[in-house]
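Sample 3 of the quickstart, ligand nicotinamide-adenine-dinucleotide:
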Amino acid sequence: MASNGNNHVSTKPPPEPSPLRKAKFFQANMRILVTGGAGFIGSHLVDKLMENEKNEVIVADNYFTGSKDNLKKWIGHPRFELIRHDVTEPLLIEVDQIYHLACPASPIFYKYNPVKTIKTNVIGTLNMLGLAKRTGARILLTSTSEVYGDPLVHPQDETYWGNVNPIGVRSCYDEGKRVAETLMFDYHRQHGIEIRIARIFNTYGPRMNIDDGRVVSNFIAQAIRDEPLTVQLPGTQTRSFCYVSDMVNGLMRLMDGENTGPINIGNPGEFTMLELAENVKELINPEVKIITVENTPDDPRQRKPDITKAKELLGWEPKVKLRDGLPLMEEDFRDRLGISRKK
Ligand SMILES: NC(=O)c1ccc[n+]([C@@H]2O[C@H](COP(=O)([O-])OP(=O)(O)OC[C@H]3O[C@@H](n4cnc5c(N)ncnc54)[C@H](O)[C@@H]3O)[C@@H](O)[C@H]2O)c1
Ligand SMILES: O=C(O)[C@H]1O[C@H](OP(=O)(O)OP(=O)(O)OC[C@H]2O[C@@H](n3ccc(=O)[nH]c3=O)[C@H](O)[C@@H]2O)[C@H](O)[C@@H](O)[C@@H]1O
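Result:
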């Protein structure tokens, strides 16, 4: 029984939560915020989180590179909420977990407004850490293999500190993510916040922006449009491509496990850009041409994750091979481009 501090004992029970809230959230016992949830990886993560009836999912996104279309099947669902919000502004809500993905990821978008990109990484991560501190939520940051810069160690494991140009055109992104990682660990050490850091390596799959300039989406769209595949010079640079369902599984294992990370999440299958173009040509359009074009500054020459830590600590490894994953994107791209397969 509650006292009102006036030596008078109230017999009135405390007020019930609003019946509306009860009706809406009666099943939920985990409220999860996904920043950047209208984007490519974020929307696939939301799909997976929503499969669990105990989860209530809130997406905060400013739609810079994401789209409501990616979430259309959840809009109106009682366990789902979508907020137009820029993470560079504080967000005052109650949550149990935060997947912090908000940040433009394609080089052409993150270089478009580099000051905004670094604000998103630094101020956005500070705001989400502040939210985690106030609510006691666990927070996962999607960092990047770009923290290794143009790596001099190959493959890259998590102990490598990287080879990053601090004043280059990519720095807003890779240095931004490095500061974001620093902030995560400082909040962890200073305030005891529960943190998780995933270092994501190149991820591909349906719902990538068609014209976002990333290599897999470029090549698939070019192959479907009968345009030459543009391999940026020298073409021998390598990347390791992870299918999005594998990525989402890895992120959820990291969030739900006991390790802070950083942990590399990626597929160690390594390809040169010429090899990737040849695979797309063979699988999607054998008639298409492959041409070489100028590259952009500071393009990393090689990239391949060492995933020993993910295997040992998360029991995770990717399952989808590149040659199986590429055709899974074709239908989604054809639908959005309105170009059907030739008979
Ligand atoms: N896809 C990859 O290969 C890859 C690799 C490494 C790391 N990552 C990281 O994973 C995350 C998701 O990447 P993605 O490929 O889905 O990219 P994406 O561009 O499709 O998604 C990013 C989302 O964040 C939103 N956003 C951007 N700035 C915001 C802001 N200030 N406030 C609120 N929302 C904002 C965008 O509108 C978009 O919906 C990013 O943090 C990215 O750095 C991705
Ligand atoms: O995985 C990562 O950590 C990072 O990977 C990518 O950055 P990047 O590897 O430069 O991605 P792309 O723009 O797809 O370029 C990959 C390679 O393809 C080449 N490329 C790109 C586009 C194209 O049309 N042709 C082409 O050969 C580029 O020169 C580069 O060598 C992502 O876009 C980042 O968000 C992410 O953080």
